[in-house]
Specification:
By secondary structure, this protein is α/β, with parallel strands linked by helices. Helices cover 39% and strands 18% of the residues. Helix 3 crosses helix 4.
């Protein structure tokens, strides 16, 4: 088990994801625990999710705005009021200098003690976890955490703007091939499901979603050895400070 930062040493958490709804599938129950504990949580969504959805009658040009609104509603369900959108194109995300710089800027601006992001490692057992955009967002976030955000000589223009180096002390990887930490989300699962259902453009059969979510969270809890009936989200936590 990792040595986690104690709650009193965490005031702000930055959650980096590739698409609207990624955080709600992977971590909304955990985020609800964090906001309940008084942590400020900020979402950074790298793309507008233009390639998502199921309704062929919705013009692609409108999908970005629809998904931004859905993500803001979903965030509110778990106590998050600050959602940043980087506006990259869904399906074309790359862990390039532009994305690393954008995330470095955000880390230096917000000064989070903890960052959550997708794993940059492909999970062959559950391939949908490893959408190329997820891998790119995770790789860019890790590069921003280390070494860029803490290195005074990386992106010197940011320092010239007054954004001083900042060291993130802990990273939580979502969708990693292995987990070393689980969060019991039994008490927050209803808010997680509310957040997921806010993404109306993504669910052709919303009535089936709650049971499916509870089943996979229950399986996580069983693997972690939690008591029968509990639900859990799983992560791979890395000390980076």
């Amino acid at each position: 088990m990792p040595d986690l930062l104690p709650d009193h040493e965490v005031s702000r958490v930055l959650v980096v994801v590739a698409h609207p709804d990624d955080v709600d599938f992977g971590a909304a129950g955990t985020v609800a625990h964090w906001t309940d504990a008084g942590h400020e949580v900020v979402y950074c969504v790298c793309t507008d999710g233009q390639s998502g959805g199921f309704d062929l009658d919705i013009p692609r040009a409108e999908m970005g705005a629809i998904r931004r609104g859905e993500q803001e509603a979903a965030a509110a369900a778990v106590g998050v009021t600050d959602v940043r959108f980087l506006g990259f194109v869904d399906g074309e995300l790359e862990a390039d200098r532009e994305l690393v710089r954008s995330l470095t800027r955000l880390i230096r601006e917000l000064q989070p003690q903890r960052v959550m992001c997708p794993s940059p490692e492909r999970d062959w057992a559950i391939l949908p976890r490893s959408h190329p955009d997820h891998l790119a967002a995770g790789e860019a976030a890790i590069q921003a955490v280390y070494p860029a955000a803490r290195n005074p000589f990386a992106f010197p223009d940011l320092a010239e703007e007054g954004l001083e180096p900042w060291t993130v002390r802990e990273v939580w990887l979502s969708g990693h091939p292995e987990s070393n930490h689980v969060v019991d989300v039994t008490d927050t699962v209803d808010r997680k499901i509310t957040a997921l259902l806010a993404h109306k453009s993504q669910h052709p059969d919303p009535d089936a979603l709650p049971l499916r979510v509870r089943e996979w969270l229950g399986a996580n809890a069983v693997r972690a050895g939690l008591p029968e009936g509990r639900l859990a989200e799983d992560f791979f936590v890395v000390s980076t400070g």
